[in-house]
Amino acid sequence: MDTHLNFQAVPLGAAIGGPAVALGGLTLFFITEYVKDKKKKSSSFPPPPEVPGLPVIGNLLQLKEKKPHKTFKKWAETYGPIYSIKTGSNNMVVLNTSDVAKEAMVAKYSSISTRKLSNALKILTSDKSIVAVSDYNEFYKAAKRNLLTTTLGPNAQKKHGIHRDVMINNICKQLHDHVKTSSSVAVNFRKIFQSKLFGLSLKQAIGEDVESIYVEELGKTLSRQEIFKILVLDPMEGAIEVDWRDFFPYLKWIPNKSFEQKIQQMHFQRQAVMKALIEQQRKRMASGVEVNCYLDYMFSEANTFSEQQILMLLWEVIIEASDTTLVTTEWAMYELSKDQERQNRLLSEIQNVCGLNKLKEENLCQIPYLAAVFHETLRKHSPVPIVPLRYVHEDVQLGGYYIPEGTEIAINIYGCNMDQKVWDNPEEWKPERFLNGKDNTLELQKTMAFGGGKRVCAGALQAMLISCVAIGRFVQEFEWRLQDGEEENVDTLGLTTHRLHPLLTIIKPRK
């Protein structure tokens, strides 16, 4: 009845206007598609090869194993290094070689700089409020500048060096304690390393390694492990959650309650914990105690950001320092533990440089094999196998093909680093391939593990310092051997190269 009355109340002009607007919208759609088709035909470059798929859903069923980086590599063997696929209603071009990937990230950056986020990432990043997934705009440039000034740049890294030294010493002490009490039992490498790395990230971000905190919005006191779960583990899990509406944007009005509740709960808990941590440090600052950390700088110098942006930027420092460096170091120790010959070679080079002294950061430039171990691990086990999707916002030519506006770009780092035309026996872990006298900057670009061009990862230097010193000290102080059955334990988690199961090794102190 109400509907009938409302319909009668609509003026004649509006009643006519509705269909007219709809007709106009359809006309605009067809005109747009016509123009796109004309552009494509008029271009001197052909479109990329297409991977055959099904109507409506495209290639989604072929990606159901949730290891897209490996599927993309297999397709490259058939369709070439650059090809297009359909993920529902979305057009995506996949890049699988270093040359075309660098062309996209550097030479054609101005046309391919906009980030394309999943619904999960939109929520978990507060709609691009962190450096890693922000578009290249004024927010990105200001936030990255502050991050380099206070935390990740060369000068900032020197100031935070004391924290890294303490962290490595504490890990080594804990490993020695394990041997004294349980020498025949395999050590859970991740449990020890991850905890200390989290402590370092907290010190850099907020100035304090927190053991527990009362969170008013949750109504309870959280332990350090619970804080870690809410700030790091849960968001990492949530980031790879798939919402079917990502592939069919025209159906975004249909609710997906189970997905929304899960991600919103992660977001709410993360917000609550970060607010509690920040408020605790506000009290410290109000008492006149200053600390060299990101939070103090953001509240005293970076007054162009909102409270929510500051919260997210602080969280970004915590989660990124706590995860990607762990992935690289854990895989490096796995590879060295199963390869005694290369482990001994690394030990010999460290001893030649350091003698009986403990390895320090200033020794790294004198031990090329240690850098080679780091770079080869990044190549074979890149922490981010696929660069976060980018969006083509103007027609562009890429790799000799025409790529129309609106296309998604997936850069398959895994595929690039497993390219047999570039790497000899790419499935083999062989650090010697990096002993070519080039500097570390060039090697980082070669594996593209930290991106490239204007969007190169701000944390590359810190990751290298932490991982290289950790690997060197662990080999310097202990013999490493895999627990029986551990060599085949190489499954990874979801869309990442994060080991599904923690590394378990038998360690023995060096004499």
TrEMBL record:
Class in the EC hierarchy, top level: oxidoreductase
Cofactors required: heme
Superkingdom: Eukaryota
One GO CC term, this protein: endoplasmic reticulum
CDD domains: CYP77_89
Topology relative to the membrane: Single-pass membrane protein
Key words, A-Z: Heme, Iron, Membrane, Metal-binding, Monooxygenase, Oxidoreductase, Plastid, Plastid outer membrane, Transmembrane, Transmembrane helix
Biological process, per Gene Ontology: ent-kaurene oxidation to kaurenoic acid; gibberellin biosynthetic process
Keyword Methyltransferase: no
UniProt GO molecular function: ent-kaurene oxidase activity; heme binding; iron ion binding; oxidoreductase activity, acting on paired donors, with incorporation or reduction of molecular oxygen, NAD(P)H as one donor, and incorporation of one atom of oxygen
Annotated EC: 1.14.14.86
Cell compartment(s), UniProt: Plastid, Chloroplast outer membrane
Regions that span the bilayer: 12-31
Protein function: Catalyzes three successive oxidations of the 4-methyl group of ent-kaurene giving kaurenoic acid, a key step in gibberellins (GAs) biosynthesis. GAs, which are involved many processes, including stem elongation, play a central role in plant development.
Assigned protein family: Belongs to the cytochrome P450 family.
Protein name per the record: ent-kaurene monooxygenase
Organism expressing this protein natively: Handroanthus impetiginosus
